[in-house]
Each structure stands twice: as C-alpha cells, then as structure tokens.
Design goal:
Blueprint (H helix, E strand, L loop, with lengths): L1 H18 L15 E6 L5 E6 L10 E6 L4 E7 L6 E2 L6 E4 L4 E7 L2 E6 L9 E11 L2 E11 L2 H4 L3
Parallel strand pairs: 3-10
Antiparallel strand pairs: 1-4, 2-3, 4-8, 5-9, 6-7, 7-8, 9-10
C-alpha cells in the first residue's frame, strides 16, 4: 500500500510542477519593459493598446497598434529601460513597406512610428516587430503587433 501512496504522491508533485506557469523565482525574474503612449497625431484612425494576455504565466505584454489607411504618428516611451534597439536592424531606423510604416528612435527610451497612407487591395495586413533592451546582461524585449487596414476598406470617402 505504501508504494501506491508514494507513486500517487510523486504523480501529484509532477502534475503540480508541470502546471506551474512560472518556474523562475521572483527575485530572478527580469522586469518587463513598460510603455506609455506619449503622442498620437491621428487618434481617429490609430488605436494603441498595451495588453498582457496572462501575466501569471509569464506571457509578456504586447503593444498593439491598429492603424487605418489615413496614417499618422505614434510616439511611445519605455519608462523602465534605456538604450533601446530594434531586433531587425542595428540602426536607429526601421522601415516596413508591407505595413507602410517607419520606426525611428527619438532618444534612448522613446521611439516614433510613422504610418504612411495605406492603400491596398487586401482587407488588412499585420506584422510583429520587437524592441529590445538589456537587463543585467540579459535581453528583454516587447512585441509590437502592427495591424493596417487600407483607406479604401476602412475609411471610405
């Protein structure tokens, strides 16, 4: 009988450890990048949201930008990290022709998204971009998900 109890106890421990979302001790956890939208030149056509799907399971926050066809500028600032860099390029600027936007560093912790007018035969397009920094020699990053809807689709004139 004691073998069955031990086996049951070990199975229970295994299930508990597998179901645990976060296996890092709190004192070793890297703080997530925190962002604020500083300005939005076209709030009627560009919506910005900062969402954490499930913070308890270590799923990082995602910055969503929904930009309709009109375009405009959105400036965001990281409040707890400096020396930002883009995953896709070593320079201080990035351009995405498919999503019709450019990204540039304003200063060490601030970036500006410039959305050009977007006209496309597709209903909508989307893509992801990562902005990075470092914490005690370790990489920390935020995913920016960009969604574009064309002017002729979303803003009929």
């Amino acid at each position: 009988m004691s073998i069955k109890k031990n086996a049951l106890f070990l199975c229970s421990l295994l299930l508990i450890s597998l179901s645990s979302c976060n296996d890092e001790p709190e004192n070793e956890k890297i703080p997530e990048m925190e962002w604020v939208a500083v300005s939005n030149t076209s709030p009627e056509s560009i919506k910005v949201s900062y969402i954490s799907p499930d913070p308890g399971c270590g799923i990082p926050k995602i910055f969503y930008i929904y930009a309709l066809g009109k375009g405009g500028d959105v400036t965001v600032r990281c409040t707890n990290y400096e020396n930002l860099y883009f995953t896709t390029t070593a320079s201080n600027e990035y351009a995405d022709e498919n999503l019709a936007f450019t990204l540039s560093k304003v200063d060490n912790n601030t970036v500006r998204f410039h959305f050009n007018e977007f006209i496309s035969e597709k209903e909508a397009v989307n893509g992801d971009l990562y902005i990075n920094s470092e914490y005690e020699g370790k990489n920390v990053r935020t995913c920016f998900s960009i969604f574009r809807s064309p002017r002729n689709q979303a803003n009929p004139e």
